[in-house]
Amino acid sequence: IDNTNGNLICIGIPSASNIPLGGYRQSCQGCELNSDGSMLRCSHCLTASREQVEATFEMAKCPGTGQVDNQNGKLVCKGLPNAKNVPKGGYLKSCDGCRLEQDSQGFVVLACV
Known about the structure:
By secondary structure, the chain is mostly beta strands. It has no helices and 9 strands. The chain is elongated and about 50 Å long.
């Protein structure tokens, strides 16, 4: 147990050896894949306020060049390329894996990971 700015946090919780590469390894502990490798679960991921929370992630949502990262205690996929036909805009600086999709009502919407 450690004290980080008044928050008590657990340190040294081991993760499984077969977990995927990614930035989350720097701020999450107790990580493991389920038996078929489809779900990553970390028992202790740090938030921006230095609290530790449990986080899970479906590995199918991070294919190819993407890598799992910790974003304020939530596991997310970073590094996925955007589709070539997405409109220009400031969102491209903070969003990955953006593409145009058709929703259930026939509207074209922008979807990002």
